[in-house]
Specification:
heterodimer, A: about 300 residues, 2 strands, about 0% strand, globular, B: about 350 residues, two-stranded antiparallel sheet, about 5% strand
Chain lengths: ~300, ~350
């Protein structure tokens, strides 16, 4: 039994990682009060940016960074449209997804099927020696190890630093934050751009560690799952980790079943994560009162004059 | 904001504002497209000419645009009403798939039925399945306050996989050499061309639906209530309107119309069910609804325009080997620019006076 479960859980961590980056990125955006439905587009575009960088320079680390910056770049469009121009956040996010997916397919076509330098798995010193746990969590690639630290930093940033707390205040009550001398517009830009950067890192994971190969449709709905997971996680990073691994688990389980050749048609297996997303939303709706949803989420800050 | 200028709220609405902003958005997206073409090592001017030529330059282009605007119009009309009520139905794509599945189901079950009986069955089932598919997120929203943006989107993925399941599985044509497609519909189940042209009767259906829709919104009590509850749930509840019923009704109607779009595409364009039916009309419909500012008559124009853009991009693909995703980039750019530009409908930049 252990021979099946340990590799399955190890694969779970791997497929949960890009979702985790994207979920935390969207959570950061929403903490500042801005809903960004462009995650799917950002994820896909940053995966391409990371791939192309690594393909051209041979440096996956540079690719990882470029993935983040590509995410930041697309998010800045959303920030400009919603924060400076008071555009509708829902529609702007949807438009961003259409744009991001279009750009990816347009610019990525020449690279289809080509491999790039990616991140290899390696055993983390000492910790990989722990039975079972070591195999599951500490025989992964560097980006997975980075993803273990990020939720902690995320928590620290919002609970212990003044910038994080100011951001959260703007997501709760922008007018009060402004009255207290904070700069709501600037802070919102920070949360959208920072969130975009994190989402971009998730995209980079897809092309640099998950596949090492360029194909179309790499994001495959993970962006939307991340948006749903923010709700499921009640805007708390700890629960985001649990949610991301839950979905990573379903995705790996579904792949395992397909590889073992069950009688269940593959389309039904492929539909599992999407059906589960709806279930996760139903579950979080039912326990809604425990949620830390930012009060000003989705509303724009009207300028004076 | 910008040095030397300050923002001021407009005292009166900017009369031609919406049009100016739309044209400006078009210009921006054309500029971006030109840059992308240059980036691919193609002549931008030549590319834009081919795009124009493919969209409006020929009789066949107009015909193609008219054909593609049928499903976009049907999807967008329904989606726009839900948006008016501040319900976000992003699921037209999935409801379209369910409509195509419903129509195919009838067409394959009763291939020998006279078309006058079979057509209503196909359209009826398409409307029913599309509406049912949309009623799931509506019910989840009303009963449990589940966010409908994500549930409708997830149902899109599930619907497309359901379609795949059917065409790869139980409905697969044994004579298709392994290609995932159903057998061709019998001629009773095919919507023919008008007077032997490429333009099929689905175009007339659009006109009928458009007029019926307009009359419904204008002359019925339900239509009036829908318009009034566009101000949001609170307004509707204060006015004593059955908000829950209205949401359910609008979502089912929206899903049904998208289902009809799927039915028309299966019965007129491909004559069978196959995965290539799903080309993202449901997503374009969202762009159209918003560009048209949710007004039915504008939706007709915007559908035609974006359908023409799709035809133009096909031409570009044929002549310059530009990927079809070019159209998505333009759609996204136009919509983002319009959203940003709408700022100037409420505000204007004024030169700061010396005294300030």
């Amino acid at each position: 039994m252990l021979e099946i479960i340990v590799p399955l859980l190890s694969a779970t961590v791997q497929s949960g990682t890009p979702i985790l980056y994207a979920t935390l990125g969207e959570m950061m955006t929403e903490k500042g009060g801005v809903l960004n439905l462009g995650v799917e587009g950002i994820l896909s575009f940053s995966a391409l940016a990371a791939f192309v960088t690594s393909f051209l320079t041979g440096s996956p680390a540079l690719g990882f960074l470029m993935g983040g910056f590509a995410g930041l770049l697309l998010a800045s469009i959303h920030a400009f449209v919603c924060i400076s121009c008071l555009g509708n956040q829902v529609v702007s996010g949807l438009a961003l997804t259409i744009l991001g997916l279009g750009l990816t397919r347009f610019l990525g076509t020449p690279y289809i099927g080509l491999p790039c330098e990616g991140f290899d798995k390696f055993a983390f010193p000492l910790l990989s020696q722990i039975p079972a746990i070591g195999d599951i969590f500490f025989r992964q690639d560097a980006l997975v190890y980075v993803s273990y630290v990020i939720p902690v930093l995320f928590w620290f940033f919002f609970k212990r630093t003044s910038l994080g707390m100011a951001m959260e205040a703007v997501g709760e009550y922008p007018a009060a934050a402004a009255a207290a001398g904070l700069k709501p517009i600037l802070l919102r830009y920070c949360s959208v751009l920072g969130g975009g950067f994190l989402i971009g890192l998730g995209g980079a994971y897809l092309s640099l560690a998950y596949t090492n190969l360029w194909t179309n449709g790499l994001s495959g709905g993970r962006g939307w799952i991340a948006v749903a997971l923010v709700i499921f996680a009640f805007w708390r990073p700890g629960r985001a980790v649990a949610g991301a691994y839950l979905f990573g688990g379903v995705m790996s389980f579904q792949l395992l079943l397909q590889a073992r050749g069950t009688n269940i048609p593959s389309s039904i297996l492929l539909a599992l994560p999407y059906a589960l997303t709806i279930c996760a939303l139903v579950f979080s709706a039912w326990r809604r009162k425990y949620s830390d949803m930012p009060a000003a989420l989705g509303t724009n800050i009207e300028p004076e004059g | 904001m910008i040095a030397g200028f300050k923002l001021r709220k407009r005292d009166e609405p900017w009369k031609w504002g919406a049009l100016v902003i739309f044209l400006g958005a078009l210009l921006i997206s054309l500029l971006v497209s030109a840059l992308l073409l240059e980036g691919q090592g193609k002549s931008a001017l030549n590319g834009l000419f081919i795009l124009w030529d493919g969209s409006f330059g020929h009789g066949w282009a107009w015909e193609g645009a008219l054909l593609k605007s049928v499903p976009i119009f049907l999807c967008s009309l329904g989606v726009a009403v839900t948006f008016r009520m501040q319900i976000w139905n992003i699921g037209a794509e999935g409801q379209f798939a369910l409509g195509a599945i419903g129509a195919t189901w009838m067409a394959l079950t009763f291939p020998n039925l006279h078309w006058a009986l079979l057509m209503p069955l196909m359209f009826g089932m398409a409307f029913l399945l599309g509406g049912l598919w949309a009623s799931i997120p509506a019910a989840l929203k009303l009963k449990l306050k589940v966010n409908e943006i994500i549930s409708t989107l997830m149902l899109n993925y599930i619907a497309i996989l359901l379609l795949d399941y059917l065409v790869f599985g139980i409905w697969k044509d044994p004579a298709s050499y392994g290609f995932p497609m159903t057998p061709e519909f019998s001629h009773n189940a095919v919507i023919g061309g008008i007077a032997g042209s490429r333009v099929h009767w689905g175009v007339l259906l659009c006109v009928a639906v458009g007029v019926a829709f307009w009359a419904f919104m204008r002359y019925t009590r339900l239509g009036y209530e829908l318009k009034a509850s566009g101000q949001g749930p609170r307004v509707a509840r204060y006015a004593g309107m059955p908000y829950g019923f209205l949401v359910m009704f609008v979502m089912c109607m929206s899903g049904g119309l998208a289902g009809w779009a799927g039915c028309v595409e299966a019965a007129a364009t491909t004559g069978r069910l196959q995965p290539s039916l799903m080309v993202g009309y449901g997503y374009t419909a969202i762009v159209v609804a918003w560009l048209a500012r949710l007004e039915p008559l504008n939706i007709a124009f915007a559908s035609f325009l974006l359908a023409a853009l799709r035809v133009g991009v096909e031409n570009l693909q044929l002549e310059l080997q530009i990927p079809a995703a070019f159209g998505e980039i333009m759609e996204g750019m136009i919509l983002l620019s319009v959203l940003a530009g709408q700022f100037f409908l409420t505000y204007k930049l004024e030169r700061r006076k010396q005294s300030d």
